[in-house]
Amino acid sequence: REIEAELRAAIQRDELSIFFQPIVDLETGRIRAFEALVRWFHPEKGELRPDEFIPVAEETGVIITLGNWITSQAAKACAQWPEDVSVAVNLSPAQIRAPGAALGIHNALREAGLDPSRLELEVTESLFLDDDENTGRFMDELSALGVRFALDDFGTGFSSLGYINKFPFKKIKVDRSFVSGPNVGRKSEAIIRAVAKMGSTLEMDIVAEGLETVEQVNAVRDAGCNLGQGYYFSRAVPDYLAVMLLARER
Ligand code: G
Ligand code: G
Ligand code: G
Ligand code: MN
Ligand code: NA
């Protein structure tokens, strides 16, 4: 496929870059982490969003090379931040199933000189539809090093309470469909509240995603979420702006 070759070349040509969106402590307002979000600045097509090329990368296997590169870049950026600020990287299912998957993560951490406890890996519910055993091994091995796992897009897939019970997640990211849109109301609020209660009992962080207004921030804080992410705080920004956001609050 043409886009596959283009994607491989794009990595070489430096057309990809990682942007960083802050994840904020809802009590203190301080940045606790940044989520790494990849962007492709195509010479002819302009800015391509991950939805437009991550699926191709997954189908063609390019995601392994691409994913290792992203983790590596994210770890290097994080190594420049204050020690209490982490970085979160999205993992595709294929990256976890690949032989030597954990090794790619180890290498990225070692190259960057980053403490594993500062890396968070985000996996979505759909990942767990197959391959339980590999997934468990991968997560246990990295958890033993101190890497933390977040269950992403919570509430969008098949119910994930079984995953929370079975796998060592430290964080739940409540999908933005619970924060804004047609399905937000008394029910969604009760669900967030229940998830947050469970999270605090299990000593997990609960992140509300897609926060765009102060009313939404207040609502999810009242419902018990301890972290928030969304345009209300900041969009994903280039690494030099991430550093400036951190400098401004310290
Ligand atoms: O960046 P955006 O804002 O458009 O992200 C869209 C989707 O692409 C999200 O679901 C996000 O998880 C995914 N995504 C963004 N960056 C990466 C990445 O580095 N790796 C993988 N596997 N998915 C990513
Ligand atoms: O699926 P995942 O959560 O990994 O990806 C995050 C996606 O959500 C990215 O596409 C990012 O740009 C987008 N996003 C981040 N904050 C907001 C927000 O406040 N509102 C909306 N609509 N999208 C957001
Ligand atoms: O660049 P970013 O990943 O933040 O954008 C995610 C998607 O949301 C894109 O499709 C973008 O056009 C759109 N978007 C960008 N800024 C905003 C915003 O402030 N509010 C909403 N609802 N959508 C936005
Ligand atoms: Mn994510
Ligand atoms: Na998400």
UniProtKB/TrEMBL annotation:
Top-rank lineage group of the source organism: Bacteria
The keyword Transmembrane belongs to this UniProt entry's keyword annotation: yes
Residue ranges of domain EAL in the record: 1-250
Record keyword Ubl conjugation present: no
Keywords from the named record: Membrane, Transmembrane, Transmembrane helix
Protein name: Signaling protein
Boundaries of the shown chain within the full protein: 388 to 637 of 647
